[in-house]
Amino acid sequence: MGLTKLVLKRPVSTVLAILCLIVFGLSSVMKSPLELMPDMNMSMMIVMTVYAGASPDDVNELVTKPIEDRASTLSGLDTISSQSKENMSIVMLKYDYGTDMNDAYDDLKKQMDLAKAELPDDADDPIMLELNTSIMPNVIMAVSHGEDDDLYNYVNNNLVPEFEKLSSVAEVSLVGGAQKHIKVVLMPEKLKQYGVTMNSIAGDITGADLTYPAGDTEVGDQKLAVSTEQPFETMESLKDIPLTVSGGNIVYLGDVAEIYMGADDMESIARYKAENGVPEDIVALTVSKQQDAATLTVSKDVSKVVEQVTKLDPTLQITVVNDDKDSIMSSLSSVIETMILAIIISMVIIWLFFGDLKASLIVGSSIPVSILASLILMQLMGFSLNVITLSALVLGVGMMVDNSTVVLESCFRATDDTGFKEYSKAALTGTGVVYQSVIGSTLTTCVVFLPLAMLGGMTGMMFRPLGFTIVFCMTASLISAITVVPLCYMIYKPIERSSAPFSRPVEKMQAAYRNIMKKILKKRGLIMLASVLLLAFSFLLAKNLDTELMAEDDQGQITITAEVKPGMKIDKIDQIMKEIEGIVSQHPDVESYFTMAGSSGLSMSSDPNISVYLKKNRNMETDEVVKLWKQQLAGIPDTNITVEAYSQVSAMMGSDNDYTVELQSTNYDDLKAVSDKIAAQLSDRPELTKVHSSLENAASVVKVTVNPIKARAAGLTPAQIGGTLNNMLSGVTPTTMNINGDDVDVKVEYPKDRYKTLDQVESITLQTSSGKSVALTDVADIRFADSPASITRQDKQYRVTISGIYTENSTKETKGQLLTDVVMPNVSGTVSIAQNSQEESMATEFTALFQAIALAIFLVFVVMAAQFESPKFSIMVMTTIPFCLIGAFGLLWIADSAISMTSLLGFLMLVGTVVNNGILYVDTVNQYRRDMDLNTALIEAGATRLRPILMTTLTTVVSMVPMAMALGDSGSTTQGLALVNIGGLTASTILSLLMLPAYYSLMNGGGKKRVIISD
């Protein structure tokens, strides 16, 4: 109360303090970074290794397994998972939460340095990345250049360096186009004539292009370094490189090879179709930000570079296909609009009860003060302004109004006692009456978020900022309620009008409440039974609710991925993608799409995919378009197509909307046999369609198995044979040349048709260091074998995912029935059922939230017991907590919304908010019992507090309605939280007013005796 007295005595100083708060708050808004989601430190590392020309089998055996073995010695590891694809190994290391990732990186680097010696010579060095949201492309651009037929090299040499200069950029990648280089095409008959090999020629080119230090010499007073060099400035100069041949003869490179500028066959595809445009082949340029860089900063920096380079070259066309800035601004704008709407709704409700615009302004003035104070604290904590933190402010609006409304209503009641001329005394007295209640209710709301600060994992990273933000809001609203509200009440001198729209209805409700409670207090047992039955019914509703890790936000983007057989030619892949594009382009809601196949950047998927961007004003929801395309694209042959709505939530956490089951085994062949059998049986079930196994999309590959004994006897090693074969079939790049300021690779290769067939591969001859020729078939077995599209392992066990699409014949019990009827009977031996990664994450995060809710209930009990100085009253108020489940589960069921992390967070919030009305009621009963018998006190306390309880509940509930309607691009993310709070608060308010008196009566002798509570 001392603070309230000080404010009322020093109004000018208080106003100046509020002005300072406004200035600092606005400054915090300007300084805070804008992001879509909180920064997610996933405690995960990725090791990516390129092994060009290798099948998934070879990648798994020669690259993935050695890396797994080295990584398994690291401390703090939770799981090791890997994926071996054509040309690429991806090993993902998940660490225990709280692991210092800088130390983890250093330890991993040491192990990868050791692993390099165990990898094939022609495999690239492993690249280590810490997994976080920043490794995903933030800006994707489509580049075309009308006057340059060498688009890839133009972009790589002129544009990529400009973007790499930006301090906010971590990686720049290119997809599409054909990279031109200087081709040194060997003539096999000439090689045979002169007795030279591809490897010796590559070595001679490398040696001829080196700069050698030759010591130093003195010229006058100066000492000058001397070096020898033979620079190549033109393609013609390459022809004059002397080659090492037997017999001492001199042969030049031009004698045994054709040298010209050319390009390999297209290895990647990038195509873009703008709105009202036609599909155009382009080079895709993707930019990923540094982890500590703000997304909007990256977008701004990239835009400046684009503007500069297009000014210098008007023929250059750069189209921004996707910019994360747009989705961030759209999502945040919708959240801010929801917040403004919530503030307006709260002020309207206050006016409906009091009938005085000044009363609404008093409460309305406390809201921005509380929000600005919260923003200052958020900025000091280093929180960004994102969907989660701004949603916390939206939730805070309704709860902020609670304290101000209770104080304002108490001031009006005090005015009736003191007279309308003594507003300062009424402000002080009214605040004093509810001082303890608002402090207690604020504390109970705040303490429930304390467990969030101790949570680890995904839940803690995502929702800790939300918890802190609401605590900041509630603390600021408490201070505002006992300072700003009484000050404004004294200055504005509002008058409660009997003609207020809700005055007469509230009076009628109070009269009806008195009559109802007289009957209820006589039938307390029946009321208890009814409440328990309602609670049991709510749990029945909960059993029918779906569960999901987190609701996905609708960003109007769809990703279509085509899984193809390994080794499929790029021309065939292009044909498949064009067929998909034909179906996509016919949909009227499609604004643009972007096709990529192949990869030249580690951040890009190796599977062909199409990113589709829907129109803002579309006729169909994104999920409806996804369902339609799943049906339309299912008939395309030679590929397994996946269609998913894209969101940053799904990108971070994955998506699991259809049927999946995962199996694991230490034996690949056993796993393949069992998975094929299960997939075949699932295909016959009417509940599923388009059943697919991740191991079924196999293709034939040629296996060259070196016999080490025969190889050694011939003077060769398996590594030499493998390296020679790779060079002969794929070519080798011994050096680069600088032509017109651009670095151009020099590639030595055989003619395209030289080793095109299996017979030609079998005819390969190898040369030993002594010059002896050895037939490949003399030292190796050559055969056909099947290779899957990818090989997945977790903790050194092979894994397979069998998936399908639910049909209309499926029910909620379908997954369990399929597990019992099909999967389990076929699992035996080394094969077992693996826990689905989504289900595993869900179980982990849900368990953490349940523990947080349990701890929150205990903390609320402690706070209330301390406030009332009585555990009995604390337990009495806490009986309102389970009954909020009736409304929460009921509204989730009506809205057909799943139980998710956000809805469980809503239950956590309810623990702290539903008791507020109970605290206010019990506190009033205890005051009235000084002068009344128990039953009268119970009835009059409820009637007296009916209006403030209705006001606080309505302002909180109605202000959350826009959030519950999932307005805007990211509305779905927090919809469950709002639904749980609306349903829970509504049910608990009604039940608190009706059932708390019965509980109070039972625990205090049923009204048979009067209990005097001393001061």
From TrEMBL:
Keyword Transmembrane helix: yes
Keywords: Membrane, Transmembrane, Transmembrane helix
InterPro entries: AcrB_DN_DC_subdom (IPR027463), Acrflvin-R (IPR001036)
Membrane spanning residue stretches: 335-354, 361-381, 387-412, 433-454, 466-492, 525-542, 846-866, 873-895, 901-922, 949-967, 979-1000
Top-level taxon in the UniProt lineage: Bacteria
Record bears the keyword Mitochondrion: no
GO MF annotation terms: xenobiotic transmembrane transporter activity
A cellular component annotation (GO) from this entry: plasma membrane
Pfam families, per database record: ACR_tran
PANTHER family named among the record's database cross-references: PTHR32063, SWARMING MOTILITY PROTEIN SWRC
Protein name, per record: SSD domain-containing protein
Natural source organism: [Clostridium] citroniae WAL-19142
